[in-house]
Amino acid sequence: MVDFDFTASLGTARFPNPVFTASGCASSGKELSQFFNLTEIGAIVTKSIMVKPRSGRPTPRMAETPSGMLNSIGLQGPGIDDFLSNDIPWLVERGSRVVVSIAGESVEEYGVLARRLRSVSGLSAVEVNISCPNVENRGAVFACDPSAARAVVEQVRRSLGGELPIIVKLSPDVTDITEVAGEVINAGADGLALINTLLGMVIDIDSMRPKLGGKTGGLSGPAIRPVAVRAIYQVRAKFPSIPILGMGGVANGRDALELIFAGASAIAIGTATFGNPTALIKVRDEMAQLLTDRGFTRFSDAIGYAHRV
Amino acid sequence: MVDFDFTASLGTARFPNPVFTASGCASSGKELSQFFNLTEIGAIVTKSIMVKPRSGRPTPRMAETPSGMLNSIGLQGPGIDDFLSNDIPWLVERGSRVVVSIAGESVEEYGVLARRLRSVSGLSAVEVNISCPNVENRGAVFACDPSAARAVVEQVRRSLGGELPIIVKLSPDVTDITEVAGEVINAGADGLALINTLLGMVIDIDSMRPKLGGKTGGLSGPAIRPVAVRAIYQVRAKFPSIPILGMGGVANGRDALELIFAGASAIAIGTATFGNPTALIKVRDEMAQLLTDRGFTRFSDAIGYAHRV
Amino acid sequence: MTMKSINKKAQQRDAEIISNKKVGAYHHMVFAVGDMATFAYPGNFVAISVGGPNSSMVLRRAFAIYRAHDRGNYGGTIELVVAPHGQGSKWLTSLPVHSTVDMVGPLGTHFGIPTEPVNALLVGGGYGSAPLFGLADLLKSQGSRVDMVIGASTAGKIYAPLEGKRTVNSMSVTTEDGSTGLRGRVTDLLPKIIDEHSVDIIYSCGPMAMLAAIQKIADQHHVLHQASIEESMACGIGVCMTCVIPLRDEDGILRMSRSCIDGPVVDGSSVIWDSRGSIPHGTLGEPRG
Amino acid sequence: MTMKSINKKAQQRDAEIISNKKVGAYHHMVFAVGDMATFAYPGNFVAISVGGPNSSMVLRRAFAIYRAHDRGNYGGTIELVVAPHGQGSKWLTSLPVHSTVDMVGPLGTHFGIPTEPVNALLVGGGYGSAPLFGLADLLKSQGSRVDMVIGASTAGKIYAPLEGKRTVNSMSVTTEDGSTGLRGRVTDLLPKIIDEHSVDIIYSCGPMAMLAAIQKIADQHHVLHQASIEESMACGIGVCMTCVIPLRDEDGILRMSRSCIDGPVVDGSSVIWDSRGSIPHGTLGEPRG
Ligand SMILES: Cc1cc2nc3c(=O)[nH]c(=O)nc-3n(C[C@H](O)[C@H](O)[C@H](O)COP(=O)(O)OP(=O)(O)OC[C@H]3O[C@@H](n4cnc5c(N)ncnc54)[C@H](O)[C@@H]3O)c2cc1C
Ligand SMILES: Cc1cc2nc3c(=O)[nH]c(=O)nc-3n(C[C@H](O)[C@H](O)[C@H](O)COP(=O)(O)OP(=O)(O)OC[C@H]3O[C@@H](n4cnc5c(N)ncnc54)[C@H](O)[C@@H]3O)c2cc1C
Ligand SMILES: Cc1cc2nc3c(=O)[nH]c(=O)nc-3n(C[C@H](O)[C@H](O)[C@H](O)COP(=O)(O)O)c2cc1C
Ligand SMILES: Cc1cc2nc3c(=O)[nH]c(=O)nc-3n(C[C@H](O)[C@H](O)[C@H](O)COP(=O)(O)O)c2cc1C
Ligand code: FES
Ligand code: FES
Fold this sequence. Notes:
The complex is a heterotetramer, with two copies of chain A and two copies of chain C.
Chain A: E1 8-10, E2 13-15, E3 19-21, E4 44-45, E5 62-65, E6 68-71, H1 80-93, E7 98-102, H2 107-118, E8 123-129, E9 133-134, E10 140-141, H3 146-160, E11 166-169, H4 177-186, E12 191-194, E13 198-201, E14 203-204, E15 209-210, E16 216-220, H5 225-238, E17 244-247, H6 253-262, E18 266-269, H7 271-275, H8 279-293
Parallel strand pairs in A: 3-18, 4-7, 7-8, 8-11, 11-12, 12-17, 17-18
Antiparallel strand pairs in A: 1-2, 5-6, 6-16, 9-10, 13-16, 14-15
Chain C: E1 11-23, E2 26-32, E3 45-48, E4 61-64, E5 67-69, E6 77-82, H1 87-93, E7 100-107, E8 119-125, H2 130-141, E9 145-152, H3 162-167, E10 170-175, E11 182-183, H4 186-196, E12 201-205, H5 208-221, E13 224-228, E14 244-248, E15 254-258, E16 265-267
Parallel strand pairs in C: 8-9, 8-12, 9-10, 10-11, 12-13
Antiparallel strand pairs in C: 1-2, 1-7, 2-6, 3-4, 3-7, 5-6, 13-16, 14-15
Helix pairs in contact in C: 4-5
The structure holds flavin-adenine dinucleotide (FAD) (2 copies), flavin mononucleotide (2 copies) and FE2/S2 (inorganic) cluster (2 copies).
One flavin-adenine dinucleotide binds next to strand 4, strand 6 and helix 1 of chain C.
């Protein structure tokens, strides 16, 4: 394993290895640092931050499902000001690679967030979470509306300037994910993050009502891995050169390999961290071993390997 | 449980209980009859039949996934002629309720199938599986294209005449399932079947290629239950009077109750039968008990109960 | 009074089951945990993976630490009181001795121990009595008076081991069906005890509704109240934001705070008890319109 | 020659593990199954639920019946030879004696037994030798000559119990690494044995590639060949259509047939062996264009 070249890249950003936290599944990183050194992983992707502080949705906010879970956090967070003064410096000082995830309720808000990030030093990339309701269009989720998705990315591109890579995170809850991918790539995305959660619901058979305070929630965990692999494979087939940050149900090295072979250039770990605080380290080490076993000497050679003819 | 009224209906069709086989998960019924008497369940929904014999997709056709499985059968079947002369009479003679599922590659083919069913006696309803590629439109799946879905249902309505209820089976792989539901209801659907499988993929990390012969496959089983509950709940909220045959990951009575409370008028069992040949009987008995425990005396009162204010 | 604070000593390890005994409706389980026990304070909890290697359950289950011992025949041990409730806890309680589980802990805040002797009233509902016995020992050892009230729906759900009863100055039991102790709820007894023993502080652990009712009484009688709360937790380590409750912080700002990090032990007066299932008015970042 | 036919006597029941012993790379497992054993013929298989009540594995696993006994100390028993391969089989082989599993069986077609004595050659690869021992007994009891060839990659994967060796007229072993028996593959030995003993029929069980190679030899030597095949099965009872193989039926029509119902034992000459992973040209309903 000494000779294995594990470096990864997304656009112009470089990482010592391809294992990242998934947005919203590592808070802003600090809490995981009692289990491992944050510089051990590729990057911390922070919880999607909005312009203003946000309380999120009422509880209960989670329901366990077969090999998965639903969450309805509702983007709780302190707002960009608090985030930039408290969370980012802590991470940057400790030498972590940081990808900031942003979320807005209007195209304008995404612009505001991107402008705020422009001058922040120490960031590796910006992830644009477009799985948010667009208050200006009857709450239609940006990620489910190709033209709205495009408008967000164009705005972020303009406001951010040309330095930081923009990774746009797509929702699998669409008829054709390659269509949305095409739009955001044209709008200037440097990479895509695939996939966000699937919309789901659990009904509590005792109260005989939806279990979550917010009624519906996002389905994550191993249950959705086949959907993630398919989405990554489809997008990679159509846009072979766009880097993909893959995620969805990865809990060990074997799972990660599926997404890598399908076309992911790096892997984010979400739900698995809840079950195992050191899941990221496990995935990283198992992945390196499995790739070495298969004769790979460089991680990058494995990306999209399932597409070879 | 003696006093529990378990009768169910979908449009004008009546059933002694609301537990059905899911199309493609009970072949044409015969094979299950060594485990229980087919009259014990609400209905047999037969494997989707096409006009001509069809070999289906190459093997491997399945991959187990966390709390689920992928299949890529590719609608293997003997064609409508063989089916009507061999499979249907066998079921009808034994007193089973029969729902015939049909699938076509063009609007025209659906019409041909519906016409053939017109004169068949002993059927309870027709299920229209529109999760098929439309060869006339670059293989776009009917269920993912609201206007194509509409055209199919209008054609079936015309060709079938006015007797048999038409249940249209929708795919969850769409941006807005209520939009497709609205189209097919307008086109004359008497009920909806929710949900078909989700498109997924598994990569074999040893061969480093997609595991299924057909590359992608349909994801079913408990993993997708939260998506099924959500889809049923959404459609019920928007179209409270359309009957829904609910399915997706039901393996026991508790699972079934979630779908019923979300809005299903009957439940179909697919993947669970593979793990347990008597799953249908288990679901039926547990459901009756759980509903009785909760004070219901009629099954029909429980339908959509999670929507009460 | 020492403030409760987050336990920063969490570790993840395999813990061997040393003993697993049914006690009434519960299982008393002892785990060999090495030095995890050294850093455990009354009120802390542990989080355990459930279902084994092929499990369909992806989330850990949280359990309040009943007792922790630094060293013994098995090195450090942690004891839990587990109710076989749903899938996960039934799996755990069914494990034979010598099985190992994956355990993370100690987690969360712990009960604050006053620096001076006080009159303390400990109130537990169901298995919520468990963490109170270790707390009682600690309070007694620094000279406090400790009265205890334990309630449950029925006798089998009262967890009150003999040695625990002996430590405290008084122990009262209530059951809703009257099958043991007084018929009624714990809160029926509190006003009298508070008055009789000039209670300074209530420590409580149990269902949210019970805690809320205790807070009302604490307010009326102007006594402090440290409550150990139980919200559904997906991660237990502060990274998921599922376990939030509305808490007013020292600056008077009302936030949806993580009960796994800012709790489970919280100052009862800082919680907006009535608002489970909603975002209380005035919460930082509350939804507009 | 009696034709193989579908076993219509399948039942679903709890089966208690009576014995579970490691034998080389495999586990020999005995299950108490009541009268399920009565209806089991060599070649039939059973399907077992894996992973326990919280399992993330939704599909049964199929295992060829090694031996079935009508009655004994435990009533009817069925014996299996299980390779701890992936998640499901590892779970199964790790179960302690007295655990119960949910078993469906006997399923599928069985080996056809000639009405007259014949010269039979039984060829097994890996755990594929297991169902051949019961078959050997049956053939011997009706007066046939039985030669057996067993192969595997390495010695630990040869399953050949002593009492099994005794029944047959000859037993040859091959391993690819030469760690026991002859270095090579089973097929290296077949031509010679066929000639020497005027073999009438080959019965085989093992990996698909081995079966295909045997068929070539059977064709060259004009001997019959009954092969027990192993395709991924989701249901094992004929309802899912995942387990298909291209089979030419009596009317000469080539169909994708279910190996759980029309197999696992099939007439080797009716299989289009080369076409795994594709639909052979001429199959009923083959894709157009
Ligand atoms: C801080 C804390 C301390 C706890 N201490 C104990 C203890 O000492 N003894 C004990 O028996 N149990 C305790 N619990 C509850 C325990 O964590 C499990 O929730 C409970 O055992 C039910 O899990 P299950 O898998 O059996 O049920 P399931 O119904 O299968 O659980 C499904 C999901 O819902 C959650 N859930 C279900 N019931 C509760 C509940 N009452 N509170 C929170 N989440 C719930 C589960 O954690 C799980 O994620 C505690 C919970 C918390 C948060
Ligand atoms: C008719 C038949 C007879 C069999 N007899 C035996 C036997 O006697 N002894 C024995 O050890 N095994 C036998 N097998 C293989 C067995 O059913 C399992 O497939 C094998 O144990 C691997 O399952 P797993 O859960 O350990 O592996 P996993 O890799 O976790 O299995 C995942 C899925 O793939 C399928 N799969 C994996 N490998 C195979 C394979 N080689 N063939 C078919 N499906 C596979 C599994 O059934 C399962 O659905 C037989 C299979 C069939 C179809
Ligand atoms: C509790 C929770 C909170 C999440 N919050 C966010 C978020 O703030 N922003 C975002 O882009 N994705 C969020 N996600 C989605 C994850 O980043 C990830 O895309 C998804 O969970 C699939 O990966 P997994 O199966 O590894 O969890 C969240 C997921 C969970 C479970
Ligand atoms: C092996 C298999 C074959 C299927 N074939 C069909 C089919 O022919 N027609 C159809 O409408 N749905 C088909 N389905 C989908 C099921 O009817 C059902 O909608 C889906 O599997 C979800 O239910 P479940 O989780 O209970 O399996 C098939 C599913 C499986 C697993
Ligand atoms: S349980 Fe995850 S933040 Fe508290
Ligand atoms: S395994 Fe289902 S039909 Fe053969």
